[in-house]
Amino acid sequence: MEAVFPRVETERLVLRRVTQEDADDVFAFLSDPEVMEYYGNDPFPREKVPTTIQNYDSMFEDKRGIRFGIEEKATGRIIGTCGLQFWDHRDRCAELVYILRKDSWSQGVMTEALGALIQYGFEQMDLYRVQAKIEVPNIGSHRVVEKVGLKREGVLRGAAYTFGEFRDLVIYGKLRTDE
């Protein structure tokens, strides 16, 4: 993986480093209870956003993964993030993570972003496997990962403790050789 944070362009989007100048855009989706419903966290208070952005940088610098801001080319604003985290260098595997502003849902944005992200993971990070864990009722997220070629592999019962309860997660995976 590069030493300088990369930029990945698609037709409508730029996947790029999130900076402190993007804090207002990031706060807009991280503070939305509906967006955060399946993210595993309570909505973020404003003061937590700078540390979150710093954590994205640390993950890249420490080679634990990468978290891109999803910039809309038309507006220049960050409308979400997507990344490959929990990077296991030995097994060449990482986990997809992503979040998107509510007003950008159902427009193919995340499908476009994740398609580019997965290609980046296979080509630049030399991953063999990309996986995602999704809460059972998060139908939109199931559709997105299936559109980008991940296959449903099973259910991890009670694998996530969020909002005071244990929740089941569906695990999806895609291998470099699945193409």
UniProtKB/TrEMBL annotation:
<dbReference type="Pfam" id="PF13302">
    <property type="entry name" value="Acetyltransf_3"/>
</dbReference>
<dbReference type="GO" id="GO:0016747">
    <property type="term" value="F:acyltransferase activity, transferring groups other than amino-acyl groups"/>
</dbReference>
<feature type="domain" description="N-acetyltransferase">
    <location>
        <begin position="13"/>
        <end position="177"/>
    </location>
</feature>
<dbReference type="InterPro" id="IPR051531">
    <property type="entry name" value="N-acetyltransferase"/>
</dbReference>
<protein>
    <recommendedName>
        <fullName>N-acetyltransferase domain-containing protein</fullName>
    </recommendedName>
</protein>
<dbReference type="InterPro" id="IPR000182">
    <property type="entry name" value="GNAT_dom"/>
</dbReference>
<dbReference type="InterPro" id="IPR016181">
    <property type="entry name" value="Acyl_CoA_acyltransferase"/>
</dbReference>
